[in-house]
Each structure stands twice: as C-alpha cells, then as structure tokens.
Design a protein that fits this description.
Elements: H1 3-15, H2 17-23, H3 26-37, H4 40-46, H5 49-59, E1 66-69, E2 72-75, E3 78-79, E4 83-86, H6 97-109, E5 114-118, H7 131-146, E6 150-154, H8 164-178, E7 185-188, H9 193-201, E8 208-211, E9 217-220, E10 232-235, E11 248-251, H10 255-264, H11 268-271, H12 283-287, E12 291-292, E13 302-304, E14 312-315, E15 318-321, E16 328-331, E17 338-346, E18 352-359, H13 365-368, E19 370-375, E20 408-415, E21 418-423, E22 426-432, E23 447-451, E24 457-466
Parallel strand pairs: 4-5, 4-11, 5-6, 6-7, 7-8, 8-9, 9-10, 10-11
Antiparallel strand pairs: 1-2, 2-3, 12-24, 13-16, 14-15, 15-24, 16-23, 17-20, 17-24, 18-19, 18-23, 20-21, 21-22
Length: 467
C-alpha cells in the first residue's frame, strides 16, 4: 500500500544521486551504482517497501540528518525547532498508509511539525531489537520526512522495565540496531540516565539523544530559568511563545494539545475579525452565497506564511508575487467543501506556481493537503507536474491553459472525496480521491494558498462558495 509514495521518494533520491555520491560514504556509493544498473521497473517489482525506504535514506543521507550545533538543533543545513505531539503507537510493527497518514496529516494541520512515538520490539531480556520493529520505524521515518516533518523516538516507553540493568542492555541493543537512522531524535530516560546515553552511543555516536542528563538535548519538565548550553526539550507543556521560542516541546496526544498548538501557531490575521468586501461581487453572486476572498485593493483576510512578509502585494486589482521567501499567501479561514473561482496568470514559459487546497498550517502543504499545479507550459501535453495536475500525482485530462501572459479562468469544486476542475471552460480534473491511494488520506479541511515558487504570478477575482 505504501508503494506509491515510496517510489516518489526513490525518484527524488535518484535525481540527487550526484550529491549523494559526493557526500555519502563508500557503502552508499556502492548502493547508488547498483541502483543505476537495475531498471526502475525491476526495482519496483522486486524490492520490499522497507528496502526502498532504506535506499531513499542511503541515497540522501544528510538532507534530514539531525545534528546539534552549540545550543541549537539542526536538520540538514537548517535550524529546526521541534513542536511535537505524542503519537505513541505510530511505529508499531507493520504500519500502513492507512495508519500513518491520517495521524501525520492531523498533527501538521494545526502547526505542529514533529511526531513523538514509542520504540517497540525490545526483547524481554533487553539484548536485541526485533527487526520488524526497526522496519516499522523506518517506514514511519520515510512517511514523516516525505512530509518534511520531524521525529522523536522514545526509546523506553511508559511500559518498559525500569530497572537499570535491563535498560543498560536495551540501550546498547537499540543503538546498535538504529545507528544509521540519523533522521530521528532519540529520547532516553531512566535511573543513571547519563550511563544509558553512553551505552546507546557506543555504537551510534552520530545519533542525537535527548535525555535528562548526558544527552545532546536536555529533557526538562519546566522552562529553564537560565540559558542552557544545549537545546532543551520541554515535556508536557509549551513555552510561552512557541512560534518564536527556541525551546523544543512535546505535548500529549489529547484534544487540548491540538487546540493549544492551533491557537499558539495561528497568524494574528486568523485571530482578528474579518468581514469580506462583497461589493466586488455581482448581485447574483451575492444572492447565490458567494464570498469575495480578495477585495482587489488590500490583503485583508490573507496572511503570508514565509519570512518575506512583502513577498506578495495587492496591486491593480490583483494579488501579485513580488519576491522569494514568502512561501505562500494563505486565506484567513480554513475551508472544506467549496467551489473556488479565480483567474490566474504566469508571465513566462517554464514559470512555476500553484494553488494549495485544504492545506495545513505547516510542513509540506502539497503532500498533506494538495497543490493544484500552475505551470508555464501552454501547448504542451498534460503531465502530472503540469498545469492542472494534482501536483506530482495525477495529470490533468487536458492542458487547457492559455499562452503565458494571458489570464486563465479556473473553477475548482471540492466536495468530500470528489474534485472537479474546469480551466477556461474545459473539464481537466474529475475524480474521486478515494480511488487513489496517495490522495485518499489527504486533509479534507484546510487553508487555500497561492504559492511562491520563485516566478512572477498573479491572481484576481478570487471568490468562494462553501457547500
């Protein structure tokens, strides 16, 4: 059931193979050469899911590798602050998309960016970790990093034996089994915790460990009153300003946790009253229940997700892309079932943008919600990354886009699992997401966003009718 997403991950790894060859170790190089000698179809037919996830991780070892630099946590080359919710059983043996995707997508929808799960499969005498549980962890890693989310693995869950001798032996076994799984932060607690960390790191020196003592990250139960010389992981609570705080945190899997993160991570625009300016609509549209999402003059009712808060602007009756770093401009409200109408324009051949639908607040909007692809490819055959595609999954029935520089009229209807898209009067998508494994677990409610992909793009006459 996981084959589709994992194959996508494999394809991306192959695209980056030269980079992996430069950065990887000898074993990774051999693996990459082996992949190039085998036809892709043969790999897809022969390799098990776990092997494909492992190939993906080996070919791209550093992109999501967790490291600590001074008092900061880094993922790959970027600083990363973990905002986690406990999902204790996520890595139980034999996980599937049906068990993983809804949980991961729900966590992302509120603005959390990390899942925290228990390690399963340590032997009764503590001397080994079951291979099927290592496999399960790696499947979770693959699905989580595909969504650009982080992971915390609690090595000793609440039901693990507490006596020191068992935990010492189990720490060594876990470290030996997981030494190559560098995309995870490992949480270790117990009596003489520093010794447990040392045992874990005997064979896994490259792994990042969070612990009450002796770890790369300090586990705390209250916000430190003075600055620490290592990152802090706050358990059971959030810092006062989680959007700007460098303190990592993990909350229990409870409705109150999701609500607290959702409120704390909300953009100020989401918390302010907003009255749509429906004067830009016709009388017929207003009577039919349409609402103007854009008043043609201001960005009222929108918020910019990225660091560049000037990345989009309202000009001449349009929302215009103005420069990189804005990520996307998002609606104030979330929407589930609706009809969306707008006009869009790209200026140049090869320009890239998109419209996020039912998108989460954080993480990879195009794979947790979805992206309706906009591309400067008029006159070209339809494909899964071209205009009108459900990005990287489903090609449109037809490429009905007008030449670059001209305005396109678009209507998208989302109603439960069904989607219909009409571009310039031509039906280009008409499908049921439940018929496509990769789409059936995507969010059914979320933000609408206009994407910053580094190319000039414009949108106008944006209105919505909720169903």
């Amino acid at each position: 059931m996981l084959r589709g997403p994992v194959l996508i991950c494999y394809t991306r790894c192959m695209c980056r193979r030269p980079q992996a060859r430069a950065a990887g170790n000898g074993r990774n190089l051999v693996g990459s050469r082996a992949m190039t000698r085998r036809p892709f179809r043969a790999l897809a037919a022969v390799l098990a899911l776990s092997a494909m996830v492992t190939v993906c991780q080996a070919a791209e070892p550093d992109r999501y590798k967790m490291t600590v630099w001074k008092d900061s946590l880094r993922r790959g080359g970027s600083y990363f602050t973990m905002r986690a919710i406990e999902t204790a059983d996520l890595a139980k043996p034999a996980p599937t998309i049906a068990t993983m995707a809804p949980t991961l997508n729900y966590v992302a929808s509120v603005g959390a960016n990390t899942v925290c799960f228990n390690l399963h499969g340590l032997a009764g005498n503590g001397d080994s970790l079951a291979p099927e549980c290592v496999q399960a962890l790696r499947m979770v890693v693959g699905q989580t990093t595909w969504r650009r989310m982080g992971l915390i693995c609690r090595v000793f869950g609440p039901d693990a034996p507490r006596h020191f001798a068992w935990r010492l032996k189990a720490a060594r076994a876990a470290g030996a089994a997981l030494k190559d799984d560098v995309r995870v932060v490992y949480w270790i607690e117990g009596e003489r915790c520093a010794e447990l960390v040392e045992a874990f790191k005997e064979t896994a020196p490259d792994l990042v460990v969070a612990a009450t003592e002796g770890g790369d990250v300090r586990v705390v139960r209250e916000v430190p009153k003075t600055a620490l010389d290592v990152p802090a992981l706050l358990v059971g609570a959030m810092p006062e300003s989680p959007k700007t705080s460098s303190i990592h945190f993990v909350l229990p899997d409870a409705r109150e946790s999701y609500e607290a993160i959702d409120h704390a991570m909300a953009h100020p625009v989401e918390l302010e009253p907003w009255t749509p300016d429906n004067s830009v609509l016709s009388v017929e549209e207003r009577d039919a229940g349409w609402v103007a999402l854009f008043d043609g003059k201001t960005l009222d009712g929108w918020w910019i997700a990225g660091m560049n808060q000037k990345g989009f602007a309202a000009e001449e009756g349009q929302i215009r892309w103005k420069g990189g770093g804005g990520s996307a401009i998002m609606t104030r409200n979330r929407y589930g079932n609706f009809i969306l109408r707008l006009e869009w324009k790209l200026e140049t051949t090869g320009a890239n943008s998109g419209i996020f639908l039912r998108a989460p607040r954080d993480n990879r909007q195009s794979k947790i919600g979805m992206e309706f692809q906009l591309y400067g490819d008029s006159g070209k055959p339809p494909h899964k990354n071209g205009t009108g595609a459900i990005y990287d999954v489903v090609a449109p029935l037809e490429n009905a886009s007008k030449p670059e520089g001209e305005w396109n009229e678009l209507e998208i209807t989302l109603d439960g699992p069904t989607m219909k898209a009409v571009l310039n009067g031509v039906v280009i998508q008409d499908r049921n997401f439940d018929d496509t494994e990769e789409l059936k677990y995507r969010l059914r409610t979320g933000f609408i966003g206009l994407q910053d992909h580094g190319h000039p793009a414009s949108w106008r006459n944006i209105r919505i009718k909720e169903l």
